Amino acid sequence: MIPNRSSESTSEFTPSMEALVSQVAQGDEAAFAHLYDHLAPRVFGLVRHLLRDEAQSEEVTQEIFVEAWQHAARFDPQRASAATWLLTIAHRRAVDRIRASQASRQRDLKVGIQEFQESYDDVEDSAILHDESERMTDAMKQLSDPQRQAIQLAYFGGLTYGEVADRLQLPLGTVKTRIRDGMKKLRDLMGVA
Fold first, then answer.
1. Nearest CA-CA partner of 153 in 144, 163, 140, 143
2. What pLDDT shows up at residue 65?
């Protein structure tokens, strides 16, 4: 729990919270200690009520007072009291933490679903790919040797038609005809329109 330092305070005169914030804006550490002593229990109570987690509430309360220290010069006593200003910061910080936590859980859930879907899809895709590969192998066996050789060099070997013609020492037109006729037969054998 956030410690209350009020037992350490020995001053008989306690300036107003607004005056303390003004002194904090000038870098007065003693004024900050007084401000903390007086408002930390209320700030922590609000944050604890919103977050419902003591450790997170302590962390957020610390962040609030760090922000108060860093931005005390922004405090305008014409707009709100020091307590209202600090409690507004507290409320905003607590809500931000809740939203961040919810976004993190949603992100984790989406990633988990996506990973599950991807692993499921990977297995399904692998099975389909295996079946298609077997069908392709069987269909390739039904081609003539010259057609199979030209298609293997062009599609599985990554060669251009010209490179296939050079490799087989055949005219380019002959290679194109073998590949075209072989592909037509493969489409028929595999039932592709």
1. 163
2. 95
Residue 29 vs residues 7, 47, 95: alpha-carbon distances, Å: 17, 24, 28
pLDDT in the model for residue 119:
59
Give exposure, 162-172, as e/b (b: 16+ Cβ within 10 Å).
eebbeebeeee
d(CA 144, CA 47): 79
* ∠ Cα 46 92 71 (to 5°): 105
Q: Which residue intervals of the chain are DSSP H helices?
A: 17-25, 29-51, 54-71, 82-141, 145-151, 161-168, 172-190
Q: Which pLDDT score, from 0 to 100, does residue 182 have?
A: 87
Dihedral through CA 184, CA 186, CA 192, CA 193, nearest 10?
10
**What is the structure's pLDDT at 8?**
44
Return d(Cα 79, Cα 67) in angstroms, integer.
18
Cα separation, 26 vs 138, whole angstroms: 85
pLDDT along the chain (193 residues), means of 10: 47 75 94 94 93 90 94 92 92 89 80 65 70 82 90 84 91 91 86 70
Do 94 and 60 touch, CB atoms closer than 8 A? yes
Distance CA 121, CA 117 (A): 6
